[in-house]
Write a structure and sequence with these properties.
The complex is a heterodimer of chains A (157) and B (585). Chain A has one domain: Ubiquitin Conjugating Enzyme. Chain A contains four helices and four strands; from the N terminus they run αββββααα. Chain A has a four-stranded antiparallel β-sheet, covered by helices on one side. In chain A, strand 1 and strand 2 form a beta hairpin. Chain B is an alpha+beta fold and 585 residues long. Among the domains of chain B are: 285 residues, no CATH class; 56 residues. Helices cover 44% and strands 9% of the residues of chain B. Chain B contains 17 helices and 18 strands. The radius of gyration of chain B is 33 Å and the shape is extended. The chains are: A alpha+beta (157), B alpha+beta (585). Bound molecules: zinc ion (7 copies). The site of one zinc ion (ZN) has 8 residues of chain B, from strand 5 and helix 6. One zinc ion (ZN) binds next to loops of chain B.
């Protein structure tokens, strides 16, 4: 408990200091609870998510960083490895491949990488996974782009 | 077509369950077979450490490794030393190590005198408060400890990985033990126990004795996992599936059979499926043949499908004046088939159960036989040696057992469940005749043997006793040979010709189920490493202490060395020291 607090505090200071270092990621800690974080990440370019801004919610366990944080998308996203309703993410580093050397910032980076390189073989969103697996790249991209426009772009755009 | 079955005739379908726990281990108490060198070993709580070290030592010696690396390799290869060596020869050292998560760093840099930055807590710590694992990753002791505690509590003691991202290396157990015991001595003990028990839990050739309550022992077999063994606690079991000893049934057959007996016993509703009560006199009536117009012995005819009373005039498709719409032939074939299957099962089951029951009754003979023998001894006959009586009785037990398990075997061997596609119909018939011939011969001789053993020969005159003696000795030899031949036939002609070898059976043991001997361990803590272990190759008996599962290395820190064929240096071993320290002693 003590260790996780100290570590999160370090990460918080690091985030404040390096704010400009990674313009694609904006991490913020809940004012009253250091175990709750949110992040805004930019959809990677040359993907159907380009131009969208996606919100993530982090729930950090007391055993952190020995155990991984729970992360989910708050913004709707059409992606084979993200549950369409709950936003749950299927990513190995958030499960058995977790290493305590990861930080919340590097988890965000891994999620951006996942957006650019979906794994259709471990789908949480079967429709999306099936489109990709059947080779219907255009179908997948147009669906994903549509949801990006609907959910992840500011309304006036 | 008229058949009225009383329900009492069918009663025996319900009692299947008790016949399953049928043949127990009573025969184990009739023991006069001289103990022979056994290839099965009992590993008691006390000898577990020694047994494990034997394998560790082989790997450490061959690959010049430290103990925790040898253990990591062995856990990865499930304690199969031969397999590990095979991989070494085939794929080489690097591949062997990488696959199991063993990282050897050649040049251990000196511990940095200044501070290091721990990547986990993002804190600068003095070099003395940090630990570098074999893989070269360096983190602070605090973070390592927390990591180990989480992993041990998650039950992952056997494979605690390094904390660095994508580092596959398994952490040095000495470091784990050392750091954890500083904060949680009990957890360090738990860690050691996990490591120790891995020798049993991850090992194909070692299994816990299935006794309940548990006797605390494990059994190690030498080269064939298809065997039947007796633990020093007296329990006999099939090493492969841990059920009761069941040869000549294969494990799969036995599993199916137990399940079937259980399921069938629950179909007391056989009666409800196969009989219906007459709408007039309410007696159960069994349907006989394909036609759905059934008649009761009271003369009432009724429709099998709806149970309604009808007249007698009918065709295949309708009964005059009756139109429930269900009078059709459709499900007939299925029902007929199910009935045929059930009769077939009953045939085998009744014989299986009869022999199991005889076995139980004959087990009670032990006492009477002992009495008879002492009576004979008092009679001061010229004949002084009565071993033929006990040998005969023992042979009776053995062959009775074989006989009863031969029925479930035959049920599956010649039935449709398992080998339908493996044999043509003709082939199957020929094989079945061959087998049944043997089975009947065995059956006849076993019954004869049983009859003679039950004779009140202690009341007979000397000549009559001599006569019976000859017969019993002859029958003993004959049944033994017949059993042997039956196993050979099963192994070679029946199971041996099958495409898939999943139906291996434990070989026939004329002497009975092998008793595992205790793995010998020497207990003298003063033995120095130059002395040879004095109990080498001597199978000690009776060092089984109180029977619990091994619990913690704390209770195992007596010095122990074990002996087996492989020659090697014996020395006192202190569990709490890493192997390399012991080596220097
Ligand atoms: Zn640290
Ligand atoms: Zn490492
Ligand atoms: Zn036992
Ligand atoms: Zn078995
Ligand atoms: Zn009737
Ligand atoms: Zn008829
Ligand atoms: Zn009817």
């Amino acid at each position: 408990m003590q260790a996780s607090r100290a570590r999160l505090f370090k990460e918080y200071k690091e985030v404040q200091r390096e704010k400009a270092a990674d313009p694609d990621i904006q991490l913020a800690c809940d004012d009253s609870n250091i175990f709750k974080w949110t992040a805004l990440i930019k959809g990677p370019s040359e993907t159907p998510f380009e131009g969208g801004v996606f919100q993530l919610a982090f729930s950090v366990p007391e055993q952190y960083p020995l155990q991984p944080p729970q992360v989910r998308f708050l913004t709707k996203i059409f992606h084979p490895n993200v549950h369409f309703k709950t936003g749950e993410i299927c990513l190995d580093i958030l499960k058995n491949a977790w290493s305590p050397a990861w930080t919340l910032q590097s988890v965000c980076r891994a999620i951006i990488a996942l957006m650019a390189h979906p794994e259709p073989d471990s789908p949480l969103n079967c429709d999306s996974g099936n489109l990709l697996r059947s080779g219907d790249i255009r179908g997948y991209q147009s669906m994903a782009r549509m949801y990006t426009r609907l959910a992840a772009m500011s309304k006036k755009g | 077509m008229e058949d009225c079955t009383s329900s009492s005739e069918q009663d025996y379908y319900c009692s299947d369950q008790d016949s399953l726990d049928g043949i127990d281990n009573d025969e184990s108490h009739v023991q006069w077979v001289p103990p022979k060198a056994s290839s099965c070993k009992v590993i008691t709580k006390e000898s577990l450490l020694a047994a494990q070290r034997e394998d560790l030592r082989r790997v450490m010696d061959l690959l010049s490794l430290r103990e925790h690396h040898a253990r990591t390799l062995l856990i990865h290869y499930r304690w199969d030393v031969e397999k590990l060596f095979a991989v070494l020869v085939e794929k080489g050292r690097d591949c062997l190590f990488a696959g199991a998560g063993v990282t050897l760093v050649e040049n251990h840099d000196l511990p940095s005198s200044s501070t290091i930055m721990c990547n986990i807590c993002i804190e600068d710590v003095p070099g003395a408060d940090a630990t570098k694992m074999d893989c070269g990753h360096d983190f602070c002791n605090n973070c390592w400890t927390e990591h180990f505690i989480v992993k041990i509590n998650e039950g992952q003691s056997k494979r605690i990985r390094c904390m660095a991202h994508k580092c596959n290396a398994i952490c040095d157990e000495a470091i784990v033990r050392n750091l954890v015991s500083k904060r949680h001595p009990d957890l360090a003990e738990k860690f050691d126990r996990f490591l120790l028990e891995s020798y049993i839990e991850d090992n194909k050739m070692v299994k816990w004795c299935p006794s309940a309550p548990h006797c605390g022992n494990a059994i190690r077999v030498e080269d064939d996992e298809f065997c039947e063994v007796e633990c020093s606690c007296g329990l006999q079991f099939c090493f492969s599936c841990l059920a009761e000893a069941h040869s000549p049934c294969s494990c799969l057959m036995w599993e199916l059979w137990t399940k079937k007996c259980h399921d069938e016993s629950e179909t007391v509703n056989w009666i409800t499926v196969h009989t219906k009560s007459c709408p007039k006199c309410h007696k159960p009536v069994e349907k006989n043949g394909g036609c759905n117009l059934v008649s009761c012995i009271c003369g009432q005819a009724f429709c099998w499908l709806c149970g309604g009373a009808t007249g007698r005039d009918h065709t295949w498709s309708r009964i005059n004046g009756h139109s429930c719409g269900r009078y059709k032939e459709d499900r007939e074939k299925k029902a007929e088939r199910a009935k045929r299957d059930l009769y077939r099962y009953m045939h085998y089951h009744n014989r299986y159960k009869a022999h199991t029951d005889s076995f139980k009754l004959e087990s009670n003979l032990k006492e009477t036989i002992r009495e008879k023998v002492s009576n004979l001894e008092r009679n001061e006959l010229r004949l002084k040696d009565f071993s033929w009586v006990t040998n005969g009785l023992y042979r009776l037990f053995r062959s009775r057992r074989v006989l009863s398990y031969s029925y479930p075997f035959a049920y599956y061997m010649f039935g449709d469940d398992l080998f339908m596609d493996e044999m043509t119909k003709e082939e199957r018939e020929i094989k079945q005749h061959l087998f049944e011939d043997q089975q009947q011969q065995l059956e006849a001789n076993v019954e004869k043997l049983s009859k003679y053993i039950e004779e009140p020969f202690d009341q007979f005159g000397e000549n009559k006793v001599m006569e019976i003696r000859m017969v019993v000795i002859n029958l003993s030899v004959i049944t033994d040979n017949l059993c042997k031949k039956m196993y050979e036939c099963i192994e070679n002609d029946l199971l041996g010709s099958l495409q898939f070898g999943i139906h291996s059976i434990a070989p026939y043991q004329s002497k009975g189920i092998e008793k595992a001997t205790e793995l010998s361990v020497c207990w003298n803590p003063k033995v120095t490493n130059t002395e040879k272990c004095p109990t080498r190759d001597y199978h000690t008996n009776g060092i089984t202490k109180e029977s619990n599962r091994p619990s913690g290395s704390g209770s195992l820190d007596e010095s122990g060395c074990s002996s087996r064929k492989r020659p090697r240096k014996e020395s006192t071993i202190d569990l709490n020291l890493p192997a390399e320290v012991i080596d220097r002693n």
